[in-house]
Amino acid sequence: MPEIVAPVRMKVTEVRSVPLRLVRTAGSVTPAWSPDRDMTFNVGGGAFVEIHTDQGLIGIGPHVSETFLPAVRDYLIGKDPFDVERHAHALRYYVRGTPYNGTAGIDIALWDLIGKACGQPLYRLWGGGKDVTTPYVSTILLGTPEERAAFAEARAGEGWKAIKLRIHHDAMAEDLRTVERVMAAVGDRMAVMVDANQAQSSGTWQPGILWDFRRAMETAFALDEMGVAWFEEPLPRYRYDQIAEMCGKVEMPIAGGENNPGLHEFVDMAANGVYDLWQPESMVMDGVTALRKVGTLAELRGKQIVPHHGGGNLGVIANMHLVASWPHAPYLELLHEPPIGDYRHGFAMLANAPEVKDGLLRVPQGPGLGVEIDPDMIAR
Fold first, then answer.
1. Among 14, 122, 129, 372, fewest CB within 10 Å belongs to which?
2. CA-CA-CA-CA torsion sign (31, 32, 33, 36)
3. Do 198 and 101 have their domain in common?
4. What is the pTM of this model?
5. Rounded distance, CA 324 to CA 62, Å?
6. Cα–Cα–Cα angle for 55, 61, 62, nearest 5°?
7. pLDDT by residue (tens digit) across 27-84?
């Protein structure tokens, strides 16, 4: 019997933020869910996080605010990256970050290190059996029914297989007309999903139109008759009783969960029949460690799971590995509103960026996340 040799344990030696060079500003658009505040899209710019080890391996992850890095270093330096479960709990305790700028980048970088140490892409470490994912066009703008129909038809012509529309008009009739025009334009070439974005706030106020239960139900019944693939966030985030009632009355899947930060919230949702399709967000839940647990819970409860978009760059890559590892994840969300909000702007930081071809996105095959930062994009 061969001698069993104990593995060499890595230790974290440094955690640092690396700034990226701003190539250009693509422009700004007004998102349907926040009509009082524009979104700006850049090619390059921002930063990413690196975790260095004594074995020479470096893990990369999405941006982490400089404000949190001293506390992260104080906890993580000297520890083994493979203890990622323990680190996820400890960082949540010691470093209370903010969505999209908190410790999600640390968690993803730790997993990137684990994949590199094992010489395997993450989706294979996580038991995945598919090396391609099906992205859907996640739109940003509201637009007129005619504009959205032309936009959807153009994406169908490019080979995309699914699209998600935003409905935020003052009148329900205009929302429904938008969906009708889009479905007529794309026919059977694309699945059509619809997002009302009513769960952005944890309270009772948010920008734009606010729905009551009656509007949500009437809209849901109409979309169900049209054959919409799913209906997302039709009610405020914590109206669990009303959301569960919708799920029981409407055959079309009701989806949501992107703004729920805690694993315990999905446990509560599972117990109370809230949502048919879950959409947790790694950049809100402090990384992919918690999302993997949500994925298991969803599978046990017979629910599909499609994680929220992941912030546009390395978080999307992590989501791609998750989707490839889950048999109950039919799509990958990809925020895409060309020309200004093109998904490729977020991937410009990568030397080997994946690209949608024939409506599919191939999972990177390198170890860990499987992608590399373009050295020319690093600010000097």
1. 129
2. positive
3. no
4. 0.96
5. 20
6. 160
7. 999 999 999 999 999 999 999 999 999 999 999 999 999 999 999 999 999 999 999 9
How many CA within 13 A on the CB side of residue 226? 25
Question: Do the Cβ atoms of 59 and 116 come closer than 8 Å?
Answer: yes
Same domain, 261 and 360: yes
Number of domains composing the chain: 2
Q: What is the CATH number of the domain that holds 41?
A: 3.30.390.10
Contacts of 214 (CB under 8 A, 6+ apart): none
Going by C-alpha positions, the residue among 195, 280, 273 that lies closest to residue 241 is 273
Angle at 201 between CA 67 and CA 169, to 5 degrees: 130
Domain span at 351: 124-376
210 CB-side CA count, 13 A: 9
Q: How far apart are CA 45 and CA 48, in angstroms?
A: 10
